[in-house]
Amino acid sequence: MKSYVPDLDVLICEINAALRRYVSRKTPATLYEPPRYLFAGGGKRLRALLVLLACAAAGESYKRALDAAAAVEILHNFSLIHDDIMDHDAMRRGRATIHTKWDTNVALLSGDLLAAVAFQALSRCPKDVLPRVTALFSEGFIQLCEGQALDKEFESRPSVTEREYLRMITLKTSVLFRLSTRIGAIVAHAPASRERSLADFGTSLGLAFQLQDDLLDVIADESVLGKSIGSDLIEHKKTYLSILASRDREGKELLDRFRAGPDPDAHRALLASFSAYLDRSGIRRTIDRKVDRYIRTARRQLERFPDSSARRLLLQITDRLRNRQS
């Protein structure tokens, strides 16, 4: 059957092999070594998996979408390099970020390379869908930048509404999930109704993912998360939990203490206090319920597809995302 797919570990191996091919040149070393270092650090390859599985769920061989999957994953990693610079993050996936291991100039150029390579990978998509896929990919790239710009603008604002925040994460995070599932559907020549269902599945999954990220920045085990926790609060990021916390006196006081820049010894104690406040105030429960709503919405979109190995793996990914710790 065209829609048969192997298990997730096999798919990830195929994705990783494709990623390595696109940064296989040896010189200049300072241009190509950092992206290889980034890819070697692992990662969920979630967006690339969504491209492949959406294509297969729509009835086509996942292999037809492999270059498109690589393109989306490369674009995602481009965004990580630049995000780490802008957010002053020293760790990514348990290792030093590129601007920390090398320097900011090397990281910027490596990110620029990946942006170009993403379009190179995309150009190898099947020619019958290439114009449409390229247009969507370009617009998704623009929206990703818009979301990042809003995220940075929000840092200097005293307050952000829930609606503004959801719009920002729809652009910054959810857009790549939606782009992934929609491109997979297009490569498979899915009818419009199924393309919409897969696109909406990606949107809901992406929103759930970002809300969980907001929470994990406070409650996660740092060794499991692979980066410093509490960084969003220190950098004045407007997250869903900080928006909710800013509505009462205790929450505001705790947020102000983070913004004052606690010394390293006090940081963990402050995180513990904030985590306890999230439980006591009901904010953690509110976020969990919102995540659950997005997960249910995502699963409903998949109910419109017949049973297949691809559909089962998409459901598996959805369940894993709901319970993730990193």
Helix content: over 70%
Please give the count of helices: 16
- What's the N-to-C terminus distance? 34 Å
Class by helix and strand content? mainly alpha
Please report the total strand number as a whole number.
2
> What sort of overall outline do the alpha carbons produce when their principal axes are compared?
globular
Any low-confidence stretches, pLDDT <50, length ≥5? none
In what order do the strands lie side by side in the largest sheet? 1-2
Summarize model confidence as the mean pLDDT. Answer: 94
The profile of the biggest β sheet is: 2 strands, antiparallel
User: Rg from C-alpha positions?
Assistant: 20 Å
Q: How do the helices and strands follow one another from N- to C-terminus?
A: HHHHEEHHHHHHHHHHHH
Q: How much of the polypeptide forms β-strand, as a percent range?
A: under 5%
How does this structure look, described?
By secondary structure, the protein is mainly α. 74% of the residues lie in helices and 1% in strands. It has 16 helices and 2 strands. It has helices at 8-22, 29-40, 46-57, 66-87, 98-101, 104-122, 130-155, 162-187, 192-219, 222-225, 231-234, 240-245, 249-259, 264-281, 283-302, 309-322, and strands spanning 91-92, 95-96. It has a two-stranded antiparallel sheet with strand order 1-2. Helix 3 runs antiparallel to helix 4, helix 8 crosses helix 9 and helix 13 runs antiparallel to helix 14 (264-281). The chain is globular, with a radius of gyration of 20 Å.
